[in-house]
Every structure is written in structure tokens, then in C-alpha cells.
From TrEMBL:
It comes from Scleropages formosus. Pfam families: WD40. This is WD repeat-containing protein 38-like. Gene3D superfamilies: YVTN repeat-like/Quinoprotein amine dehydrogenase. The lineage of its organism: Eukaryota, Metazoa, Chordata, Craniata, Vertebrata. SMART domains: WD40. It comes from the Eukaryota. WD repeats lie at residues 17-58, 59-100, 101-142, 143-184, 186-216. InterPro entries: WD40/YVTN_repeat-like_dom_sf (IPR015943), WD40_PAC1 (IPR020472), WD40_repeat_CS (IPR019775), WD40_repeat_dom_sf (IPR036322), WD40_rpt (IPR001680). CDD domains: WD40.
């Protein structure tokens, strides 16, 4: 059941992490919530202490803007996607690049780990999604069918499906194991699909330049409902780990948490990426101006109590 909160969240004591020299395009917490990973148009990736906000390390190697970054489920690795047409796989402990995955013919916009840690999927301006074997770095499958650039991707929690959102206004869901039918197309958005995310109950959520968020039962091609209210195009969305709270962020707009609005104070520009902590109590967001997060410790406990976690 979709839960509608009855009161607004208040975010105080915002902390800035300002060492990037370009727009912060994506941010990701490690599964243990100790590390925050960010990537930027400055071609760099930064690792931060989630507790202190201290910059721990920088990863260099990409020669173009880094558009997406993500940790592996065990936090041993992280991956990055760049406009230099490559996906890079890094070891978290050393920040050493283990592999450069080359296969895309144009800029890469998105990369995602499967929950079981076996696969990576990437997509970009060549209109293709590539499934990679994490251990070998080899291409397992190439998914073709989109008529526009692929901007976003997400695995289902059982690692059996991959969803991709495209500038052709559609979401495609690709089956990794089924032989009889490889993909389903979800239609309805009236603008580029900029973000997709699975919930714990196998719902799929998509955000678009049409300023809406759509909630689907993906393999059944069923649209459950449409969430409206943003005044700009939806840039990013994320579920809390228990799947009950959805955060969405839009161009030049506020942060919406399950239709509770949080004032976008602290950000001086558009928000590009957001992610919940594993507990679901805190939310981090990256923008052209800075990246913010709520303070740990007592405030996290208060946030958990307010939402019944």
C-alpha cells in the first residue's frame, strides 16, 4: 500500500561537501552507510566519510564528465559511467581502476550493479544497454530496441530484470533469463525518461521530463498511478530500503518525499542526484552548486522515530 505522510519533514543543520569543480551528477551511499561516493562533470569521483564529511580519496582516470556512479552490494567495488564512452570498475579500498569496459560507441549515461553483484548494466547515447560480467569484464548481452539515448537503468531486486529509461519517452524492461519474451515496453510518458527505480515489492517507478512520476507493475505493463506536482522535469528518484518512502527531485524544484515537500534549502542550483542511506532516515543530494546531507547521530535517530523506522 502507498503510504501518504501527514506532516512535512524539517531538514536542519545541512552539511556541505564542496570539493568537486563541476556539477555533481550522482551520489551513492555504501551499503554500510559509512562512505558516500560522488561523481562530477570535473571527471573525478570522490569518496567521503558519511559521518564526518571528510574527503577520503579521489579517483582519476576518466577523460570526460562522469554521469553515474554506484557501489557493488558488498561495497568492495564501485562503477562509473562517463562521456568518454567508457565504464570503469574500481576497487573501493584502494581507489584503483580494475577494468575499463569499452563497448559503447557514444557517451555513457548510466551504470547499475545487480543486487547479487554478478552483473553490471550500462546505457547511453548509442541507444543500447550492455550487460557486463563483473568478474571477467566481458559483454554478456547487448539490449537493442530503444529509439533514443538511454539515460537511466535499474535492476529488479531478484536480479532477473533490468529496466532502462530513454529519450524515446519509454521504459523497457529486459528479462535476463526468460527465453520466450525478452522485453516489455512501458509507454505513457510525454517526455524523456530520466530515472527509474525498483521498490522492494517489485513496483517500478519512472520519472520524466514531462514532470510526472509513474508507478508500474512492469512485467504486466500495468500503470498503477501517476504522481504529479513537480514544476520542473524529474531528474532523479530513489526508494528507501524498505520500499515505503519515495524521494523525487526535479529541475529547479523542491525535493518531494512521498509527497511530503522538503524545501530545497542549501542547494543553490538544480539537484542532479539523490540517494537514501541504507536505514532510510537520511537523504543525500548532489547539485551544480553543492551536495548536501543531513547530520548523522541524534538527527538520524529523530528522523527514524518521525517515520516509524
Amino acid at each position: 500500500m502507498w503510504r501518504t505522510p501527514v506532516e512535512c519533514l524539517t531538514i536542519t543543520d545541512v552539511r556541505y561537501l564542496e570539493r568537486h569543480k563541476g556539477e555533481v551528477n550522482c551520489c551513492a551511499f555504501s551499503p554500510d552507510c559509512h562512505i558516500l561516493l560522488t561523481c562530477s562533470d570535473d571527471s573525478r569521483l570522490h569518496l567521503w566519510s558519511a559521518q564526518s564529511g571528510q574527503l577520503l580519496a579521489k579517483a582519476k582516470g576518466h577523460t570526460g564528465p562522469v554521469k553515474c556512479c554506484t557501489f557493488s552490494p558488498d561495497c568492495a567495488l564501485f562503477a562509473s559511467a562517463s562521456h568518454d564512452r567508457s565504464v570503469r570498475l574500481w576497487r573501493s579500498a584502494t581507489m584503483r581502476c580494475l577494468r575499463v569496459l569499452s563497448g559503447h560507441r557514444r557517451c555513457v549515461e548510466t551504470v547499475s550493479f545487480s543486487p547479487d553483484g554478478m552483473w553490471l548494466v550500462s546505457g547511453g547515447w548509442d541507444k543500447q544497454a550492455i550487460l557486463w560480467d563483473v568478474q571477467s569484464g566481458e559483454i554478456v548481452k547487448v539490449f537493442s530496441g530503444h529509439k533514443g539515448a538511454i539515460q537511466c537503468s535499474a535492476f529488479s531486486l531478484d536480479s532477473q530484470f533490468v529496466a532502462t529509461g530513454s529519450w524515446d519517452f519509454t521504459v523497457k524492461v529486459w528479462a535476463l533469463q526468460r527465453v520466450e519474451e525478452q522485453e516489455r515496453t512501458l509507454q505513457g510518458h510525454r517526455g524523456n525518461v530520466s530515472c527509474v527505480c525498483y521498490s522492494g515489492s517489485d513496483m517500478l517507478v519512472s520519472g520524466s521530463w514531462d514532470k510526472t512520476v509513474r508507478v508500474w507493475l512492469p512485467w504486466a505493463r500495468t500503470l498503477l498511478f501517476i504522481l504529479e506536482g513537480h514544476h520542473g522535469w524529474v531528474r532523479c528518484l530513489t526508494f528507501s530500503r524498505d520500499g515505503t518512502v519515495l524521494a523525487t527531485m526535479a529541475e529547479g524544484d523542491v525535493v518531494s518525499v512521498c509527497w511530503t515537500l522538503i524545501d530545497k534549502r542549501g542547494h543553490r542550483d538544480s539537484v542532479f542526484g539523490c540517494t537514501f542511506t541504507p536505514s532510510g532516515a537520511l537523504l543525500a543530494a548532489g547539485s551544480a552548486g553543492s551536495m548536501q546531507k543531513a547530520k548523522d547521530g541524534q538527527q538520524e535517530e529523530e528522523a527514524q522515530k518521525a517515520h516509524g523506522y
